[in-house]
Amino acid sequence: MTSPLSRIPPFARILAVTLCLWTAISVLGALQTYSDNLRAGIDSHYPALLGTWFVEYALPLIVLSWGLSMALARWPALIARPRKVLLLFAGLVLLFQPAQWTWMAWQRGMLDIAGIEDARQLLLKMLLVGWFSTTGTFAAILAFFYSRQARERETDMLNLRLALEEQRMLALRAQLEPHFLFNALNAISALVRGGDKPLALHGIGLLSELLRYVLSASAGNTTTVAAELRFVQDYLDLQRLRYGERLQMHVDGAGAFLHEVECTPLLLQPLVENALRHQLDCCEGPSDIHLSFIRETDALLVRVTNPAGGGTPANPGAGLGLANTQDRLRVMQPEASLRAGRQGERFVAEVRLPLAGADGA
């Protein structure tokens, strides 16, 4: 929704702000002069003092503030370098300051100059007037524009970082999905090579269901752990067509609360696939894979373990699946973490997911 202020032209906004600011300064300055006169026993009239303050002091500075602000808004390169700032200030001193002195002298009736000596005396008087206010105005406007440029640069950098992270996320997804598809097709191709066409067709049907989930999950940034668990169980059904009864996985701690825990899509499948690849593909006999869900006060621990001993190669912990999962967590869920490594005779991959509202618990 567009703010009403955004529909006001920039020059009008700058002028309005400048008028309000210098009017407030004139009010305070006239009040201080009125108070000083009272203490000194001088009779004075506050409206007249306010008019003098506004006309003599504020009006020239309003013109300066508005003109300088408009110039910097249109040509920000004027303050892009220190040398340019010095040149701009020098121009201000040479052009604006004499004009301000002439204006004030005219308002005070001091322009009746009879000779060179009168001009010299007037110049000496005016040299002490306006320096602080002019320099202060210049410095304040400069500080405002520098701070605005800094905010704009910060916003641009933030937008750039967000765009880069989004592109990185898309690249990670594009890398993960073909990897998953390649492993699923391997399971089906093993059935085809074995000549079991009905089972292979059943595997293709399972794969289509898995791909439907992959496409829908990848379209969003989050899903639930419960949905991920269902997907992993379907994935294991497909892999079981290849490995048969050798594929065994024990699930502990699953409950209805998993529907409430959000996570990155395709989080569990790479962990389970890593365990399958480094056990069933490296040794004979049934697998011994455990998938556990451990609910803590402020987090859910998802742990996948499989044997790492018996002369079989240990999990490298830096394959595409685990590395990709770690990168996606870093991008999408920085508060989550993944640890993977050998613990005794088993390889353990553990994801720690913070629970929603844990901070306020």
Descriptive notes:
The protein is an alpha+beta fold. It folds into 2 domains: 4-156, no CATH class; 164-354, Heat Shock Protein 90. The protein contains 9 helices and 7 strands. It has helices at residues 10-39, 46-74, 82-107, 116-127, 131-193, 197-218, 225-243, 268-277, 320-332; strands at residues 223-224, 249-252, 262-263, 289-295, 299-307, 337-343, 346-354. The strands form 2 sheets. A 5-stranded mixed beta sheet has the order 2-4-5-7-6. Strands 1-3 form a two-stranded antiparallel sheet. A hairpin with a 2-residue loop joins strand 6 and strand 7. Helix 5 runs antiparallel to helix 6 (197-218), helix 5 (131-193) packs parallel to helix 7 and helix 6 runs antiparallel to helix 7 (225-243). The longest helix is centred in the middle third of the chain and has 63 residues, at 131-193. The chain is rod-shaped and about 120 Å long. Mean pLDDT is 76; it is low at 311-318.
Provide the low-confidence segments as ranges: 311-318
How does the major sheet shape up? 5 strands, mixed
Give Rg in angstroms: 38 Å
Overall spatial form: rod-shaped
